[in-house]
Amino acid sequence: VVEKFIIPMTKDVECSYALMLNPKGVKVNHFISHAWAGGFKAFAQAVLAPDLQLQGGLWICFFANPQTWSPDELSALLGVNPFMSPFYTALEKAHNVVAIRNPNRNMYARLWCVFELW
Asked: Fewest CB within 10 A of the end CB: N or C in the chain?
């Protein structure tokens, strides 16, 4: 999804997909934490599952971070202190964190996922 859709759609605007669609931003109600090892279809089905009843703004890293930026630009955005990162800003504003797990990888083996649930 990132390579085939998000990058091509955002390459000329030089911002994230989320900001391209919502230039003024959206209030974050739910921070979605996930490991990259799962497929997009399973991820979307989990997020849209009726039992979750997610309403309002969702913060999902691959939509919120600018995917066309260089690794150096992304590193500068994320910084060395996770408490100064866009992830933490979104976590602070979100009403809750939703962990989307998948059978391919233990999400808690990823440091960012542990941080997001801490």
From this structure: C
